[in-house]
Design a protein that fits this description.
about 140 residues, globular, mainly beta, four-stranded mixed sheet, six-stranded mixed sheet
Length: about 140
Amino acid sequence: MTDLDQSGNGYQQVMAYNGPSLGWVLTRVKPQVAVTSASYTVQPGDSILLVNRAGVVTILLPSVARWVKETAYNPSVGFERAIFIKDYGGNAATFNITVTPNGADTIDALAMSFTIVQNRQLLRLYPLNDLSGWFSG
């Protein structure tokens, strides 16, 4: 990622209107995070996780309920309100990437982890309206 304006921020922002209560806020469009460690917990503001590690990686998802509420007061959450996890390094066939939901949350209505096993595979996760978990898209 390149910091074109030398602001220290490696992401693109836009002004988005969030209704009469919140008004106009500066919102990240697609914040990217490079994941190079064995374990990574998704943080507020993360939207795209580019996994580039020649080793097993575990991604820990946030609580869906907290993730959705975050957007109401924190303008740093990605514009699309989704989490993208990409095997950027092309190592997933040899070193799997495990995506683990938080607590009782699910992924595609399954109370288990999702494993990325193909090189360059992308997993897109969107919150379910009932806040019971994530669905992949």
